[in-house]
Design goal:
- By secondary structure, the chain is an alpha/beta fold.
- The protein has helices spanning 9-17, 19-27, 36-56, 63-76, 85-103, 163-175, 202-205, 208-221, 243-249, and strands at residues 5-7, 111-122, 127-138, 144-150, 181-188, 194-201.
- It has 9 helices and 6 strands; from the N terminus they run βαααααβββαββααα.
- Strands 1, 2, 3, 4, 5 and 6 form a 6-stranded mixed beta sheet that branches.
């Protein structure tokens, strides 16, 4: 029996960024380093997920009381001792900004339908596409809107990196054959929930399947897994295993070179 090859947007991005990193993470499965920015992002994702999950479940009380509860629950349970005081302060400010946006909406709020929506789609007999969508909502104009939270400070690189949004649009459209057009956004949490927004037609999105099958062929036919060195090597979880990355950064692998 042929084993199903599983793909995701993050898996493809890793392969495109550095084939050696792909080998370390997805073939040899070396552990990754849990970094502060990842903890911060995951914490915010969980709080927002639980906030909307409660509303979907029928909560009708004040937003601020609900946000306070889910914030404290996550801080004192899942993320106890892992979120720093500075991160707690920053995340509180971000979530407060979100509450202000909801308060100033004059009651015209999108209807959040699903949070952390999982999908597993067989592209053919050998390839499966999977992932999680942060939010699926219906906007006040009636259009289905897919949202992906981002905690990056930098917006510009995301404006051209639309694979993740198109992947999520594909998953939603495959589930709902009546959708001919879909709105998708990266939501910049550190920029007052500013949206990098795009609308896609079904014709555009159905091309995603062929793109992923192409990625699957490229990954499965790869033999060498050569590293791609650059400034981002400094932040790679596998720098200790990668001599090319260490050579690029210098002898001490901290971005410093010999005097």
């Amino acid at each position: 029996m042929t084993e199903i090859f599983k793909l995701s947007a993050s898996k493809v991005k890793t392969f495109q960024t550095c084939k050696a990193k792909y080998r370390f993470e997805y073939i040899e499965k070396f552990p990754r380093i849990e970094r502060d920015f990842q903890i911060f992002g995951s914490f915010l994702h969980e709080v927002l997920e639980n906030f909307h999950r409660a509303i979907i479940g029928g909560y009708i009380g004040p937003d601020n009381l609900l946000m306070s509860k889910v914030f404290k629950d996550s801080l004192n349970n899942t993320w106890k001792g892992r979120v720093t005081a500075e991160q707690t302060k920053d995340s509180f400010a971000i979530l407060n900004s979100y509450l202000l946006l909801r308060h100033n909406s004059n009651g015209s709020l999108p209807a959040v339908k699903e949070v952390e929506k999982s999908f597993r789609l067989k592209l053919n007999d050998q390839v499966m596409l999977n992932g999680y969508i942060d939010v699926v909502q219906t906007d006040i104009d009636g259009m289905t809107h897919v949202l992906d939270y981002k905690t990056s400070k930098y917006k510009k690189y995301l404006e051209k990196d639309l694979l993740q949004l198109k992947t999520y649009a594909y998953a939603v459209m495959m589930e709902n054959s009546s959708l001919d057009r879909l709105r998708c956004s990266y939501v910049m949490l550190k920029h007052d929930f500013d949206h990098i927004e795009r609308e896609f037609t079904r014709t555009e999105i159905m091309k995603v399947q062929d793109r992923y099958l192409g990625y699957a062929d490229a990954i499965q036919s790869e033999k060498l897994y050569r590293p791609s060195t650059g400034p981002l090597c400094l932040y790679c979880d596998h720098l200790s295993r990668c001599s090319a990355g260490r050579d690029y950064l210098g002898a001490d692998a901290h971005g410093e070179t010999d005097w």
